[in-house]
What we know:
The structure holds 2 protein chains of 2 kinds.
Chain A: H1 2-11, H2 18-24, H3 30-34, H4 42-50
Chain B: E1 2-5, E2 11-14, E3 24-27, E4 30-35, H1 43-50, E5 54-61, E6 64-77, H2 80-84, E7 95-107, H3 110-115, H4 132-140, H5 148-156
Antiparallel strand pairs in B: 1-2, 1-5, 3-4, 4-7, 5-6, 6-7
Amino acid sequence: MLVSGLTRRESAVTDLAASDLATIYPQPTARVIAKARPELDTHAQKFIEMSPF
Amino acid sequence: MLATSGSDGSVDASPRGGTPGFVSVIGPNQVLLPDRSGNNRIDSFRNIVEGSGLLQLIFFVPGIDETLRVGGKGRLSSDPQLLASMIEFGKPPRAVLRVDVTEAYFHCGKALMRSKLWSAETRVERKVFPSISQVIHDQTALGEPESQEAVYERYKTQL
């Protein structure tokens, strides 16, 4: 079942252009864009200090 | 998780781990990641020294679905004093990756929630998959396949 499923999926693959993406995905919210920070704030530093992986 | 890209545009991602806090935060724009014993392919570090040095890290904390992505430029050091300051599992690292951070981004927890990564119900018994030694033997016909127990015991001496 998996193999036949993959075959169907592979036959349906198309090469999307960058301009196509905007037709599929809405613009991210301002909040999502703004949360990319230029440095490690206290939250990020604490997260790294807790991280084993 | 460390992702790097080489001078030819190829990319590499490899797991990194240690005790919590094994990556040292030196400041708001700098972290140090010790390199422990591995397979000596040094795909990541070769990319860093031969490519742009641009890299991304993703940090996981067991029990928390959000992850932290950190991007920046890496440089490698084998300074003896630095290595000596990062002893873990009784050994200094072989090298230290210094990352000059340019971006930090908390990913939302939806991917890990979907996967139930930290849930006990999604854990599998180790025996459902062959030992890595058996996998490599099946792939290459090199060496003698070890049981999972033997691999685990050997790994414990190589951390």
